Predict the structure.
Amino acid sequence: MAFMGGCVFLNCPQARALDRTNVVFKIFQFPADKIPTIDGQTNDWNIVPESYVIGSDQLVDDNGKHQLSDASSPKIRVKVGWVKGLNRLYFLYEADDDYWDFAQPDLHNDTFELVVDGDLSGGPLIEKFSPARDILGQWETYFTLQGTPAQNYHIFTPADGKDWCMAWGPAQWLKELPYANAAYNYNFKPGQPGHLVLEFWITPFDYAGAEGPQRAVESVLKKIKLSVCRSR
């Protein structure tokens, strides 16, 4: 299975869900009897071929302009999967770094940022880029737009004494069961080198409002031909 734009690994300098329309990420379809268990172990992912691995050379830095290919960057491997009939995206994130920064209790943290636009709406994710901001005002735009058409997760790598991620927007219910789950496996302390395993799944939404899940609309995941996924 392949998605373009529907599953994008980047920070968003222009705050749009389809910033990298020329990039296609392959997503592995797990059999229904081999759904990954979210326990921080990698054995469930052994059936995923190497051709599905998204490496450091395919990710971008905080400015969205430079690939993470220099020697000082963490060495990252990401696998993404789905199961037919479940509107979930499963992730295995593995990284090796010589210095892990996660000692502070606030948002200062080594972070894996994930943007998901399940229906490829392609619109702005952040209130300040909304064309309606001048009419609605900053806060009304924030509560009606940010994270609603597409979701942005700032995932702490690792999380220590705090939630596993910060969903960028008012709909914080997105990161909790029954819409998401996560598990870590590591044995280093802040400032030390080491290997991190992060296993998680999320639910993509076409609409995820601040009012809660009662009016939310899940994205329906399905297999499509790769040719449909090419850039416009």
User: Anything to note?
Assistant: The chain has one domain: 2-229.
